[in-house]
Amino acid sequence: MASAAPPASSTGLLHAAIVHRPIDVGALIARAQVPGVGALSVFLGTVRDFNDGRLVSGMDYEAYESMAASELAAVAREVCDRSPGLRVTLEHRIGTLAIGDVSVAIVAAHAHRGPALDGARAIIESLKQRVPIWKREHYVDGERIWIDPTRAALPGEEPG
User: Fold this and answer.
1) Which terminus in the chain has less CB density within 10 A, N or C?
2) Cα separation, 74 vs 130, whole angstroms
3) Is residue 56 in a domain?
4) Is 62 exposed, middle or buried (0-12, 13-18, 19+ CB in 10 A)?
5) Contacts for 67 with CB less than 8 Å, ≥ 6 apart
6) Does residue 7 surpass a pLDDT of 60?
């Protein structure tokens, strides 16, 4: 039995937030999943233990919260506007995070995989360029350095 596509009123940006707590990926998925959704693309950005040739021990994320929340929602709405039927939930965490912690989670849901995958990618790429969130890496030698999230990637590497 075929499922009907989600009604238009239930598509678009469903949730976007800047949070100080661990991100509940399951809750974001549950919010996006409805009958008619055949594809969920989940992007998780996590704190890695190595960057630019240095061992990392953690990360601070800071934001101009009201502006970051507004711009985060604007980015997601723009992507949803370009892809009818797309459903999006996302959160970005700020504060001090440990290695492996999820800093950003994006769930893009659609009846088909192409728009779901494209939606998640478009959101993370635009978020990195536009949303005023800054990160400071903690290195194992004790040094802490602010990182430009918009910097160009090294060959074969994704930015920030």
Assistant:
1) N
2) 10
3) yes
4) middle
5) 132
6) no
Predicted TM-score (pTM) of the model is: 0.88
Cross-strand partners of 93: 19
- CATH number of the domain at 99, please: 3.90.1170.40
Helix-helix angle 65-82:113-130, to 10 degrees: 150
- Condensed to tens digits (0 to 9), the pLDDT of residues 31-80 reads 999 999 999 999 999 999 999 999 999 999 999 999 999 999 999 999 99
Rounded-to-integer distance, Cα 153 and Cα 136, Å: 17
Q: In which domain, by residue range, is 79 found? A: 9-142
| 108 within 8 A of 40, measured Cβ to Cβ | yes
